Amino acid sequence: MTDPSETFATPRVAAGAMFFDDEGRIMLVHPTYKDTWDLPGGYVERGESPAAACRRELVEELQLDRKPRRLLSVDWAPSEKEGDKLLFLFDCGKLGEDATNLQLDGAELDRWEWVHIDDLEKYVIPRLARRIRSTADAGPGYLEHGETATSA
Question: Per residue in 24-36, pLDDT tens?
Fold first, then answer.
């Protein structure tokens, strides 16, 4: 008899934070190890919830202790290189004065910027631009490859 767990999905799980300013721009960060920009966040560690991972990553990357307010989207986004992936995006509120106190570690992130949603393609890879835009346009929901999933 075959062990059923051999067929269970074991996706990589990541959690990201979405911050918007009063002008509707989104906060992006620039990782030192990539040519493109990204959202603050990272992979979930074993035994850690996606919300806890999002909060931990904000502390590690930006020296910002911010509890996620609500789940905005979950994106099923497998890749050939990394296999199955589930990506959680959380609303982490407005930064306000906290933006002036952000401290990038310089090793993982070297800068951050407010970016208008119409300019995403100049900064991020296409699937992340789709994920951000779908999340911002449609609100909370389930995505596949960054697009609203209308049927399974």
Answer: 899 999 999 999 9
